[in-house]
Amino acid sequence: MTLALVTGASGFLGSHLVEALLASGYRVRCLVRRTSSLSWLAPDRVELFYGAVTEPAALAEAARGAELIFHLAGVTRTLRRADYEQVNAEACGLVARAAAASGARRILLVSSLAAGGPSAAGRPRREEDPDAPVGPYGLSKLRGEALLKAQAGRTAWTILRPSAVYGPRDASFLLLARFAKRGWAPAIGGPAQPLSLLHARDLAEALLAAAACEGAAGRTYYLAHPEPANWESIARLMAARMERRVRRLRIPRWGVRAAGWGGRAGALLSGRTDPLPADRLRDLLAPAWVCDPARAREELGFRARVDHEAGFAETIDWYRAEGLL
Fold first, then answer.
1. Which single residue of 54, 76, 106, 204 could bond 17 by disulfide (Cβ 3.0 to 4.6 Å)?
2. C-alpha angle with apex 85: 84 to 87, nearest 5 degrees?
3. d(CA 314, CA 308)
4. 3-state secondary structure of 107
5. At what angle do helices 231-241 and 174-181 cross, to 10 degrees?
6. Residue 202 burial (CB < 10 Å; 0-12/13-18/19+)?
C-alpha cells in the first residue's frame, strides 16, 4: 500500500485530498501544525506528524518512508509579504530536500494559475506561455516552483497550477455570497473579467491522476473546469441557491483599489488578517484569469466533473450549515 505524505493536510485543499487518497486505498501521513484544527480529518485513519513546512527536521521525519509527497501547504493572503516568500517559496525548497533525502518517488506541488499570471482577453493561458505573475502571491508561487525543481535531486516532480478553487470548507467566496444574499451581483466597471474555476474535489482527483501517471514527471499542468465564469454569474448562481433575486451592483475600478487600501488599514489597526488584501484585490483588475486544461485532459485523462451550478450550490449549503450566511 503506497504511503503518501500530505502537507497542509488539515486545510481546505488538503482535507479534500486526504479523503480522496483514503478512498483510493493509500496510506496517508499528514503533516499538521500543533495549532491546526483536525475537524476535517479522520485521525484514526491517518498518521499525524506535527510540524511546519518551514521546519527542516519536521519535514525530514514526516517524509521518511513516503513514496509520494503532496505539497499543498501555503499562504494565500497575509499582511506581511515575507510570509509569502517563506511559506510559498522557501518551504518548497525544504520539502524538495526532504523528499530527495528520503528517496521519495515523486513530489506533487499544488502551485497556482497566479504563478503564470493573468491571461489576455479571449485567449486562455497555456503551459507554453511565458510566466508573468503580477503580485507578491504569484511571484512567491513561481519562485517556489523554481526552488522545488532545483532541490529535488533525483526525486521526480509534477507541478499543478489550479485556477480559483472553491467548495465546502473554504471561505474565499463568502463575501460574494453575502452580497448575493443581500440581493446584489457585483460587476466591476469595464468588460466582465472571465474567470476559470475548479471545485476542490476535482483538484483532488487531478492530483491522484497525476500521481498515477509516470509521464507526468517533470511536467506542469493548468487545471480548471473548461467553462469560465465571472463574478456576476457566480453571484447569480449563489443567489439562485438561496432563492434570492439579485440586481447588478456596478463597482468602479477605482473603488476596487480604494477597498484594498481601506481593508489593509483596517487589518493593521485591528491585528486581523485582511480577507481581501490590496495585493490580491489587484487581481480583479486584470483582463482575465482563464487557463486551458487541455494538457491535463490529454496527458492525465483529467476533466473537471463538478459544474458551477452544483458546486456553488454545495458551497452555499456549507456556508449555511456553518452559520456563515
1. 204
2. 65
3. 10
4. strand
5. 60
6. buried
User: Quick one: what percent of the chain has pLDDT higher than 70?
Assistant: 91
How far lies 195's CA from each of 182, 291, 299, in Å? 23, 9, 23
Q: What are phi and psi of 17, to 5 degrees?
A: -65, -45
Q: Which of the pair, 300 or 266, is modelled with greater confidence?
A: 300
C-alpha cell, 264: 489593509
Mean of pLDDT values over 182-200: 89
Sign of the CA dihedral 184, 310, 291, 209? positive
- C-alpha cell, 147: 526552488
**Whole-structure pTM over 0.85, yes or no?**
yes
Of 57, 60, 29, 58, nearest to 45 (Cα)? 29
CA distance 60 to 5: 11
Distances (CA, A) of 234 to 76, 145, 196, 285, 315: 21, 30, 11, 17, 11
- CA–CA distance, 181 with 213 (Å, rounded to integer): 43
Joined together, the cell numbers standing for residue 305 give 466533473
What pLDDT, on the 0 to 100 scale, is given for residue 238? 97
